[in-house]
């Protein structure tokens, strides 16, 4: 076979094997604008993947940043005591009655685009600006979702501030990460003055598991720009998948740190009103007491009390319900070391808490008019932020058994702006609207019934439940015993009640950690200390390259036939590296060898393709798309030198790709010199 030449014919090394040909694909085949000739050495039949233990990086402390849609924070632990997790300092400012171990994901830049503040400080400062002055400042909130929803994400993608001005997304994310870097390092210096400055921190960034490779690479690029790590020390930065981090943390918990939603007290709306897991594990507990050695080993291996009571092979689901997305992952517990095996690829969708915010905005549009709301957001951006803060405070108090209406404050500027724009007051607008479950309060507030508030939750909550039910119906997921509900949105009593009502009847135990909003952050720290805890993952997509194979009549379509020098070739054949849903172990490698086509060639570029199907045959099949490029950079000293006895220009470059980590990774070596070759995969160049 031959990797499809995404290039011209000139300079390609022609091997002697009749199975290979330098002939390029016919016009119309997918190709890149800048690429180099290659002569593959690996046969079509892929060698069995080989496992290689990852090389541990040197670090003294792990700092994890949970970069969320609505709120963010950091935590850390020292390598000398990895399970002693230090939460970041409480943030100044904030809302009454809300814990401040995280800060809102809000960024404020000056009118010139310089960094001003982040979090509560940014939100409060923007709130206090004069309305006219605020229109010149760049305020960003909930901007993480833009990366998830972008279909053509690149390093040049732009983000829109509240005032409508545009800013490079990479700079926006880098500003935020730089803020956390400076805060975390300052706190580390105060706690451990003797801590070395250089290469002492392993950084961990959390991302949704359903994010595709371009979004993960984007976060890494933002981290480089923010100065978290350098490209030369890329291994000092780990990307953690949010539900995986939650799973890693939950496996450390003891029974008194977990709450079983089936034990909800009638009318309860707070987490503390629910009982912890009890009777279902008592029998296992007694067995473990009679087997002291087994219990001690598991605990010493880093497994918590709940997991000590589970059997090898037990399965569970983690539902990470965040501000922007819901991520579902299924793990199987492997004993005796407590490692985790993914049973089904991560799934989910944009069913986070912001869906409730959008439902509230749509409600306002029904009452006051879509055109007015759009104008108000554009001309009074700070006041709009005030209104969303007021709604957020009431949203947190919503519960399925709550009695009494909820009052939502309208900013004075909203009331005044509406009167000037429409010629009548907001009370008149409410009377004229078709919305009869929202009234006007004499205190200048919107008065919403509890039923109306719960209705705002329904589309988002229903989407979450449907995703969970669809997952549980998969044959790979049969035998699940537990569902862990984690993430900031999992604090909602409305969501908890709905999930328990829908899934409790089928015998699934729905469990919530006490510190549910910090589960991912703490788990990310533990993951940074021992990233090998998730031993096996499922590939979300099929990945491979295009190749030329010998044409076989009856098996290959006639339109794929290419004849050159009397040889018949089938073009655009999709050679698979890894299949969708395939289990891939951490450190497992897929190896391919390539040969630079010309003496002195400095770069080898090979297009990568992906699809959701497992059985795609050609890179031109429906659903198959170019998703990235594998780049091999050759050192100048290597380009013109030939190994004794080797044909001129024939230099074997062996690439090893890993699909079992949170990111797709590649390394390469020049076989003739045994020297490493700079190798990378770019998913943002499309």
TrEMBL record:
Transmembrane segments: none annotated. Residues 12-53 are annotated as: Disordered. It comes from the Eukaryota. One of its GO terms (biological process) is endothelial cell migration. This is HSPA12B isoform 1. It comes from Pongo abelii. The gene is HSPA12B.
């Amino acid at each position: 076979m031959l990797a499809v030449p995404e290039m011209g014919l000139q300079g390609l090394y022609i091997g002697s094997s009749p199975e290979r040909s330098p002939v390029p694909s016919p016009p119309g085949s997918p190709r890149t604008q800048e690429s180099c000739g290659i002569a593959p050495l690996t046969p079509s039949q892929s060698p069995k993947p080989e496992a290689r233990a990852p090389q541990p990086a040197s670090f003294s402390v792990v700092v994890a940043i949970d970069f969320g849609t609505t709120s963010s924070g950091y935590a850390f632990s020292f390598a000398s005591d990895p399970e002693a997790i230090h939460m970041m300092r409480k943030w100044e400012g904030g809302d009454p009655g809300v814990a401040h171990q995280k800060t809102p994901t809000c960024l404020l830049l000056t009118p010139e685009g310089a960094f001003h503040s982040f979090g509560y400080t940014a939100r409060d400062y923007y709130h206090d600006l004069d309305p006219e002055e605020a229109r010149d400042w760049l305020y960003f909130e909930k901007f993480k979702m833009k990366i998830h929803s972008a279909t053509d994400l690149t390093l040049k993608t732009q983000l829109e501030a509240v005032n409508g001005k545009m800013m490079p997304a990479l700079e926006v994310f880098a500003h935020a990460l730089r803020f956390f870097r400076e805060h975390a390092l300052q706190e580390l210096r105060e706690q451990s003055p003797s801590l070395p400055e250089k290469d002492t921190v392993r950084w961990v960034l959390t991302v949704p598991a359903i994010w595709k490779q371009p979004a993960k690479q984007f976060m890494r690029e933002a981290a480089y720009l923010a100065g978290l790590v350098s490209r030369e020390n890329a291994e000092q930065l780990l990307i953690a998948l949010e539900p995986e981090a939650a799973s890693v943390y939950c496996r450390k918990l003891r029974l008194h740190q977990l709450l079983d939603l089936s034990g909800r007290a009638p009318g309860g709306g707070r987490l503390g009103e629910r009982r912890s897991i009890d009777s279902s594990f008592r029998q296992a507990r007694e067995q473990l007491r009679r087997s002291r050695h087994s219990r001690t080993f598991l605990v010493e291996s880093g497994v918590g009390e709940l997991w000590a009571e589970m059997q090898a092979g037990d399965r569970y689901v983690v539902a990470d319900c965040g501000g922007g997305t819901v991520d579902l992952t299924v793990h199987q517990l492997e004993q005796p070391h407590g490692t985790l095996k993914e049973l089904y690829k991560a799934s989910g969708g944009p069913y986070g808490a912001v869906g409730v915010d959008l439902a509230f905005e749509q409600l306002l549009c029904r009452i006051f008019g879509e055109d007015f709301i759009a104008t108000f957001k554009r001309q009074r951006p700070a006041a709009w932020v005030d209104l969303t803060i007021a709604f957020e405070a009431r949203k947190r108090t919503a519960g399925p058994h709550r009695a009494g209406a909820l009052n939502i404050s309208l900013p004075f500027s909203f009331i005044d702006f509406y009167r000037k724009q429409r010629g009548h007051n907001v009370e008149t607008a409410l009377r004229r609207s078709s919305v009869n479950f929202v009234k006007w309060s004499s205190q200048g507030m919107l008065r919403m019934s509890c039923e109306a508030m719960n209705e705002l939750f329904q589309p988002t909550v229903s989407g979450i439940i449907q995703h969970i039910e669809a997952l549980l119906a998969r044959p790979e997921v049969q035998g699940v015993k537990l569902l862990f509900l984690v993430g900031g949105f999992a604090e909602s009593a409305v969501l908890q009640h709905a999930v328990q009502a829908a899934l409790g009847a089928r015998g699934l135990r729905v469990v919530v950690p006490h510190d549910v909003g910090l589960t991912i952050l703490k788990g990310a720290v533990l993951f940074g200390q021992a990233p090998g805890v998730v031993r096996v993952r499922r590939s979300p997509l099929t990945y491979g390259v295009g190749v030329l194979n010998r044409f076989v009549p009856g098996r290959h379509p006639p339109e794929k036939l290419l004849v050159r020098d009397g040889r018949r070739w089938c073009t655009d054949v999709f050679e698979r590296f890894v299949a969708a849903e395939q289990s891939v172990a951490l450190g497992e490698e897929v190896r391919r060898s390539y040969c630079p086509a010309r003496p002195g060639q400095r770069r080898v570029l090979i297009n990568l393709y992906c699809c959701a199907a497992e059985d795609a045959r050609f890179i031109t099949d429906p659903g198959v798309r170019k998703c990235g490029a594998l780049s091999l950079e050759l050192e100048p000293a290597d380009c013109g030198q030939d190994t004794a006895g080797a044909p001129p220009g024939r230099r074997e470059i062996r690439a090893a790709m890993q699909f079992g980590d949170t990111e797709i990774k590649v390394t390469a070596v020049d076989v003739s010199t045994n020297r490493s070759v700079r190798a990378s995969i770019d998913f943002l160049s499309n």
